[in-house]
Amino acid sequence: MSNADFGGVFNSPLEAGIRAVVILEHLRPESLDLAEMVLFDHVVVHTADLGGPPSLHPELPGRKGELLVRRRLIEASLQLMQRCHLVDQESADEGIVYRASEEAAAYVELLETTYSVQMKSCARWLAEQVETHSKAQFKQMVRERIGDWTEAFQTGSA
Prior knowledge:
With about 160 residues, this protein is mainly α. The protein has helices spanning about 15-25, 35-45, 65-85, 105-110, 115-135, 135-145, 150-155, and strands spanning about 85-90, 95-100. InterPro entries: ABC-3C_MC2.
C-alpha cells in the first residue's frame, strides 16, 4: 500500500501528531523534550523490537535509521497538535518540553479504529515501562538496544 492509499496520512505530521498526543496522554503528567518525543515515537511504532506488544508499523530492514529522519516530522507534528490545542509546549529547566493538554484525554478516548486501538496499546506499554524503570533508565535500555544514534538526531544534523 502506498501513502496515497491512506489519503496521504501515512508518516505525515497528522499521523505522527496523533501518536504524539497518545504518547503524551499515556505518560501524563510527564513532559518530554523533542529528543524524548523522537525516541518514544520510534518505540511506540516498533514496540516488538523492545519486547513489547506487536509493532504498530511493519518491521522493515533499516528501521533503526528512521530515528535520523524522524526529528523534523515530530517537530511538525507537535506544532500541528499545538494548533489543535492537544499538546502544550512549556519552558522547563531542561529546555522546551511538551505535555498533553487538558483536551487530550477526551480526544484519545474517541480514537477507536483498529490502528488507534493498537497505538494506544503500544503507548500504554511504553508508559508502563517508563513507570517501572524510570524515564532515564528506560531511555538507556532503548539506546542499548537500537545503538548509538543519539548524537546525530539530538543535534539536528540529520
